[in-house]
Amino acid sequence: MFFGAVKGGGMSSRHHIGAVLGTCMVLCAPVAAAQTPNEKCVNPAEAEQQVLALDEKRVSALRDNDVAFLDAITDEDYLHVHSSGNARSKAQFMRGRANRTSSFSAFVIVENRATIYCNVAIVAGTYHNSQKGSTAEKHARHLRIYVHRDGQWKNVVHQSTRVGGSD
Question: Among 115, 75, 119, which Cα is nearest to 93's?
Fold first, then answer.
């Protein structure tokens, strides 16, 4: 029990409250940093549907190499962490997409769920894909963060982790 351990440890009520508030501030900082001062919280049920639909369109755009759509939904501060561990900015990610035709023969989201925090959506799930000309199939987990700004959702972070096999 966190509260019991803190109270039993001789901490005063004032210090106990300060410790709890400090912990909350540290845990909430990443979400708060993505908030914009004039942006209002969105309806969580509607936002969940919107973000999951947008994420599905994002996967279709990757499969079809729709660079214009990917550019439109990707924030300027985008960070893309590939399953290999390599990190790319939006400019690097878009350059990589622009210099190819569709490289995926298949890209399937197996599981996807969205959690909404005011105007931030965290999408987590699993997928598998394969590259054209290859029989190898990659299975991975993904985590994407979207922020609702100026009336639209923007993808600010993508991170994937390969599961099974080796990189």
Answer: 75
- Alpha-carbon distance 120 to 25, whole Å? 17
Place of tokens 């440890």: 9
Taking 80 as the threshold, does the pLDDT of residue 8 lie above it?
Answer: no
What are the b/e assignments for 144-159, b being 16+ CB within 10 Å? bbbbbbeeebbbbbbb
Largest CA distance in the chain: 66
Residue 96 φ/ψ, nearest 5 degrees? -65, -40
Q: Which of 24-28, 43-47, 51-55, 122-126 has the lowest mean pLDDT?
A: 24-28
- 85: how many CB neighbours lie within 10 A of its CB? 10
Distance CA 131, CA 85 (A): 18
The tokens describing 85, both together, are 């561990």
Half-sphere exposure at residue 78, Cβ-oriented, CA atoms within 13 angstroms: 22
